[in-house]
Each structure stands twice: as structure tokens, then as C-alpha cells.
Amino acid sequence: MSPLIEFRDVSKTFTSGSTTVSALDSIDLEIDAGEIFAIIGYSGAGKSTLVRMINALEGVTSGTVTVDGVTITERNEKEIRRIRSRIGMIFQQFNLFRSRTVFGNVAYPLKLAGWSKERQRARVAELLAFVGLTDKAWAYPDQLSGGQKQRVGIARALANNPTILLADESTSALDPETTQDVLRLLKRVNSELGVTVVVVTHEMDVVRSIADRVAVLESGRLIEVGSVFDVFSAPRTDTTRRFVGTVLKNRPGAGDVARLRARHEGSLVSVTIDGDAPIGQVLTDAVRRHDLRFEIVHGGIDALQGRSFGNVTLALSGEPEDIEKAVARLRAVAEVEVLA
Ligand SMILES: Nc1ncnc2c1ncn2[C@@H]1O[C@H](COP(=O)(O)OP(=O)(O)OP(=O)(O)O)[C@@H](O)[C@H]1O
Description:
This is Methionine ABC transporter ATP-binding protein. InterPro entries: AAA+_ATPase (IPR003593), ABC_transporter-like_ATP-bd (IPR003439), ABC_transporter-like_CS (IPR017871), ACT-like_dom_sf (IPR045865), MetN_ABC (IPR041701), MetN_ABC_transporter-like (IPR050086), NIL_domain (IPR018449), P-loop_NTPase (IPR027417). The protein is of the alpha/beta class. It has 2 domains: 5-245, Rossmann fold, CATH 3.40.50.300; 254-338, Alpha-Beta Plaits (2-Layer Sandwich). It contains 12 helices and 14 strands. The strands form 3 sheets. The protein has a 6-stranded mixed beta sheet, sandwiched between helices. Strands 2-1-4-5 form a 4-stranded antiparallel beta sheet. β9 and β10 form a beta hairpin. The radius of gyration is 25 Å and the shape is elongated. It starts with a strand and ends with a strand. The protein binds adenosine-5'-triphosphate (ATP).
């Protein structure tokens, strides 16, 4: 099956006066129908530029972008408008019309598409029920909380039954609890309506909460792409490791190791937990068989896409050969590193 969204060797440069900025550099990326795909990167990495190419709000300098089999970078305005009508978008600042009610905001794209008043009413009622805002139909945006405003944004973006929803930093203006509410709603948009969702964010917690796959952008280049589990459990670049470190307790850094060494006797051993490896059982056996003691001194275990994942650092003390044997047994079930 061909991907729903495909970037082939896409580059983008912005030129103003004598300065040229490379916003995107040779991007190859595929997003499949039905997935929740996240694009993460620091400010200026090129995330917005990339996502805005999907609905042709941004053009390419070179390369091609194909959406549902149509190479939009080669199409005229009229054809682009037709494709755009199948793509919804939500924004960090919600972009609602302040002078229109919630009903008026959600009905707006339907009005533009020439729907009758009666059909508009029925569709808006359905959308407001879906996002849980039926009782706010006649409120104005200024009377709503940030989370409610984003729900209106989502209802409006869904009005024309899009196949793709683009969410550009859609929770960045919200507190953590409201963020989770909105992310749960986006998950329902994906699972109940079958909409492919592309989320742009600088927060790894958003990626962990919602995405199936993630791409990491740095200075306009795609440095990593994979399932959320794979990227979190085995990040291949320092930038990705830093992002992962913001939500998961990782292997201790150099400063942590020095501190741990000063406070604990024995060997420091870092064990990566992935799935249901019987780490506890191996440790209990080792303690029983050899004269060994252990202390858990750093780390934590979390759930990631339904699997346990994390890292714990143990201080193992006892005879060196017994520690070696215990480490060998741990190595049989997990990734283990003896910290220098
Ligand atoms: N219209 C423009 N004119 C000139 N430069 C631009 C324009 N749009 C983006 N850029 C530059 O392109 C680079 C990528 O910007 P982009 O907004 O895509 O990054 P981002 O990862 O979305 O960042 P942020 O999280 O801060 O929004 C930046 O260096 C930015 O300054």
C-alpha cells in the first residue's frame, strides 16, 4: 500500500535580502493512512514548514510532496483547493473568529462549501456533540477556556470530513491536564473517525501520549524516524536522547554517576527494562546463590505503547566474581552496562 503522505527529497530555503535560511534539507518521509504521526524538534527545526507543505500552505524549493496519490507540488491552485478541502488543520492559538459564536465558527467551512442552512445545523450539532461542547453552541470564543477553544478548532477542522488532520503545536498553549484532554480527543478523531493525524510538537510527552510513529527534525534535517517505542527505547542521536530524557528516566549522566559513586559502594550497573524481562527474579536468584547485595539507586519504569520501558541503575556489592556472574545473568535477559 502506498503511503498517504509522501515527501521525496524535499528542500526549502527562505531568502530575505542577502540572507538565505535552509529550513528543510533533503527530506524523505512517508506517513501511512490511519496513523498518528508526530514531528518533533526544537524551535526553528523546520516542523511548521514541513507540516504546512502537506496542505500546500508552504511550497517547496525542490522535491515533491504527494498526498493520497496526488503530487501537490505539481498541481494548480484549483486542484490544490480540492485537496485542501480534505485536510483539516488546528493551531496553537486556535485561530477562531472572535466575532462568531461557536456554532458560527464550526459552520464557517460548511457555509463556504455551499451547504444549506439545514444541513449546516445538523452537521454542527453532530460535531459539537463529538467534541463535547453542545451546551456552548451560542457562546463566543472569549467566553471559553483554552481547552474548549481547541475543541471548537477541532470541530471546525472536522466539518468537511477530512481524511487528514494537521495539528501544529495544538496543545502548546494549554496546561498539562487540558493538554491530555485535547490529546484524548485527537486519539478519538483517529480511532473513531479513521482520520490520519499529523502532530507537530516540541514536547516529547505529547509524542508519548498520542503518537504511533515519530520523526525528529534538527536544523531542517530528518535525523530519526520510527515507532515511538523504538525511538524511545533506542534513540540514535544526542538530540533524540535529550528529548527522550525529558519524559523517561534514563541511564544516569556523567554528573549523576559521580554523585552515585560517592554515595554507594559496589559496582554501578545500568539495566534497560524493555517489556517483561524478569529482572527482579534474576536479581533475587543472584542474591540467594552468591553473597551479593543490591540497591536501586537511579531510574524508573514507565509504560510506552502498552509495554514496560525504562532504566534502573543498581549498586551491586559483593565479591567481584559474584558481581560478574550476576551481571552475566542479567545480560541474558536485558541490556546491561557496567558504568565506568
Ligand atoms: N516565511 C519565512 N521567511 C523566512 N524564514 C522563515 C520563514 N518561515 C520559516 N523560516 C525559517 O525557517 C526555519 C524553520 O522554521 P519553522 O517555523 O518551520 O520551524 P519550527 O520547527 O516550526 O519552529 P517553531 O517551533 O519555533 O515554530 C527557521 O529558521 C525560520 O526562521
